[in-house]
Structures are given as structure tokens and as C-alpha cells.
Specification:
Length: about 190
């Protein structure tokens, strides 16, 4: 892999549908209506289009079309994951050989244990948040899996002792309190 390989090039080789990966809209901005829909879906992801339409002041077809546009553009997607507090979590810092950062990121990012893989600047090239069923599984991952990834020069691991906040609590906070209450009843 050469130095000029981009993250988009790596995604293209993962087998993941390009429509499901995040791509910013052409303008780089979401409309107020887009943000309102996304906030409503954060609160009630299984609500019907007609129910959401009543709260948002539009018809079900408009809501469905807006979701389809956001989804096709890779701006919004559906994610399911186990709550992090049910597993042992670790932050694994990786220093990579020159020119190998994106290659290592793609390999590690394909692991089931990797919750997130972030490219960083500074003493470490990648910071991986990883989840394990047990500390034995963490040890096995560090000693057997990561040691076999070409391009990793050094690892540093910290165990997490708790989760203060995760994606389930994050909200756009653009709906009024009355709208939030109405969506919660859907």
C-alpha cells in the first residue's frame, strides 16, 4: 500500500456497501428538517413514519423520503450494539511502521472486538476502543491477534473501569421539549 492510499480506498476494499458508509452531503450541512428527523429517530428509532410526521409537521411520505435520502447519502444509518458496560473494555494505542497506518487501521477495524478505530496524531498512530467477554479474551487478542498484524510496531493498553456516556445518550437536541415528549409517546 502506498503513502497516497486514502481511507475511501480502504473502505472500497472492505466489502461494505459504499452507500452504508458515512459521506458528508454536498453542501456539508444538514437542513433543520433533517436534524429534527434525526433527533426524533434517536429518541424513537422504531416509530412509524406517520407518527413522526405528525410530530414533525409533515406527512409520512415526506418523512420516509427524507430518511431514504439521508440513508443513501451515508449521513444516517442504523446501528445495533451491545451496551459497553456488559463487557471488558480497553483502549489500545498502536504505533505503526511508516506508511502502514491506514493498512493497520483497516485490518484492526475488521476485528469484531474493535468498537472504534481512530487515527491520531502524536505518540500513537491509532487508538482502538475494544470490547471483550473477559480479560482472558483481551489477553488473547493482544498476545495473539495484534502480534500477528504486520505494521504494528508498539502497543499500549489501558483497561477502562467504567463508561460515563455512550452513543445511546447522545442527542442532537433540536426538538422542543413538547416535541420530545410527543416522540417518546410514539
Amino acid at each position: 500500500m502506498n503513502q497516497r492510499t486514502s481511507l475511501q480506498d480502504l473502505w472500497a476494499n472492505t466489502g461494505v456497501d459504499a452507500g452504508s458508509t458515512p459521506n458528508p452531503p454536498e453542501s456539508g450541512r444538514l437542513s433543520d428538517d433533517d436534524r429534527r428527523l434525526l433527533h426524533a429517530l434517536q429518541i424513537a428509532p422504531r416509530a412509524t413514519w406517520s407518527g413522526l410526521g405528525r410530530v414533525l409537521g409533515c406527512d409520512a411520505v415526506t418523512v420516509a423520503r427524507r430518511w431514504e435520502r439521508l440513508s443513501r447519502a451515508g449521513i444516517a444509518w442504523v446501528v445495533a450494539y451491545r451496551p459497553p458496560e456488559s463487557r471488558d473494555l480497553a483502549l489500545i494505542e498502536l504505533r505503526c511502521a511508516a506508511g502502514r497506518v491506514l493498512e493497520v487501521a483497516a485490518q484492526v477495524g475488521a476485528d469484531d472486538e474493535a468498537v472504534t478505530v481512530d487515527v491520531a496524531a502524536g505518540a500513537r498512530d491509532l487508538i482502538v476502543t475494544a470490547a471483550f467477554e473477559s480479560q482472558n479474551d483481551l489477553s488473547d487478542y493482544l498476545l495473539n491477534r495484534l502480534s500477528g498484524v504486520a505494521g504494528i510496531v508498539e502497543t499500549r493498553t489501558q483497561l477502562l473501569i467504567g463508561v460515563h456516556r455512550d452513543a445511546r445518550q447522545w442527542r442532537l437536541d433540536v426538538l422542543t421539549a413538547t416535541e420530545v415528549a410527543a416522540v417518546e409517546r410514539l
